[in-house]
Amino acid sequence: MSGRFIAVLRETGPGAKRASHAARRHVVDDYKEVCAHELINHPEAGTQRFPGQDELACRLKITKVHTNLTSGSGPEADSTMDHVLNIADHYIFTPYVYPTWWPEDEALRQIISLWVVTSLGAELIYLGFGALSFYYVFDHKLMKHPQFIKNQVRKEIQLGIVSIFWMSFPTIFLFFWEVRGYSKLYDKISESSLGWPGVFQSIAGFLFFTDMCIYWIHRCMHHKSVYKHLHKQHHIFKIPTPFASHAFHPLDGFLQSLPYHIYPFIFPLHKVVYLSLFVFVNIWTISIHDGDYRIPGPLIYLINGAAHHVDHHLYFNYNYGQYFTLWDRLGGSYRHPSALLGKGPHDHVRKLLAEAAQMQ
Questions:
Q1: Cβ atoms within 10 Å, residue 55
Q2: Whose CA is closest to 250, among 172, 320, 173, 169?
Q3: Most buried residue, 52, 77, 239, 355, by most Cβ within 10 Å?
Q4: Is residue 25 domain-shared with residue 167, that is, in the same domain?
Q5: Residue (of 327, 321, 328) closest to 306 by Cα position
Q6: Are 152 and 234 in a shared domain?
Q7: Residue 360 domain-assigned?
Q8: Around 234, how many Cα atoms within 13 Å sit in the side-chain half-sphere?
Q9: Which ranges of the sequence are coiled-coil (predicted)?
Q10: Which one of 69, 84, 106 terminates a domain?
Q11: Is 359 a domain residue?
Q12: Could you report the per-residue pLDDT of 217-255, keeping only the tens digit for each?
């Protein structure tokens, strides 16, 4: 191994001090040059490997060096990769998609990768969990309700897919700022002064903060100057199925998702917790459109479930909340679920079916 190679390794080792962005970029460039030099002058190292594997291994080493150099927080930590993006780069993008000369931390590459990961991931969650909910939870008798429109499921899916596609474009720039280290996301529990109690506090804080913000954003969407342009598309589905969960105007959907992105720029949040909460809120959104109006005991007065949300679709100005009933109660927009009073969509369908049976 050359002396210069050893010198570069010393600069990138665990004990090395964190340098400026320019210095770090210089070290990574040196590493690339030295790595290429080693491959040219010591080709025997790769005789038992597949063509191109040495180059790939070198590229992965460069990535590891750059990650070591950029570890930390703040704007200079421009390679603090989101876990999903890191995995996608390691197993898919770096070895199979992008050209060998394109660094993983380059801004345009990260933006493209984030768009692919975000749009495909959101579509898979929507279609996957939506289908499971539609076939195993949703009561298909509700499709006999007079306000269930013709070809509704197809229309919901079409609008949902298109909406997620367009929503992902503004969303990736928020993810990009998070990946670049401008948020308060962190990797290790030990990095937080609050430790494990802080993790649970951040989960509660995330749910409270996003529920509050979404309540007011959602309520603003019902203002007459905004409603017909944005939110009306979602409300054509009076008796929603799980596929109505993401069937929004793209701008409407993006604005209602903003609190999820704003939170980690204001409050510390563990990266894995953040990712888990993002998956959770998408599944929750599907669940409040699934037609299963059962809510355990006293939680009826706390949780804004499917029974509450279907009344929002039917009666328009009630139950704006995302998870809880708190802000509807404070804002005077709470309505006790009609489904729990024997006056819900199921009751209406049962009445129609009974009348039809009597006429036969």
A1: 14
A2: 169
A3: 239
A4: no
A5: 321
A6: yes
A7: no
A8: 27
A9: none
A10: 106
A11: no
A12: 999 999 999 999 999 999 999 999 999 999 999 999 999
Say whether both 91 and 151 belong to one domain: no
Least confident of 13-17, 129-133, 146-150: 13-17
Structurally, the chain folds into a number of domains equal to: 2
SS3 readout for 75-131: CCCCCCCCHHHHHHHHHHHHHHHCCCCCCCCCHHHHHHHHHHHHHHHHHHHHHHHHH
Q: Is 303 helix (H, G, I), strand (E, B) or coil?
A: strand
Helix (H, G, I), strand (E, B) or coil at 207: helix
**pTM, whole model, 2 decimals?**
0.78
- Tokens (6 digits) for 80: 């603090």
Residue 64 pLDDT more than 80?
Answer: no
47 and 149 assigned to the same domain? no
Boundary of a domain, candidates 73, 106, 139 = 106
pLDDT in tens, 3-13: 544 444 444 44
CA geometry: angle 61, 73, 122, nearest 5 deg: 80
Q: Are residues 13 and 94 in the same domain?
A: yes
Where in the sequence is the domain holding 173, given as residue range(s)? 109-353
Query: Is residue 192 within 8 Å of 241, Cβ to Cβ?
Result: no
The answer on 318 and 219 residing in a single domain is yes
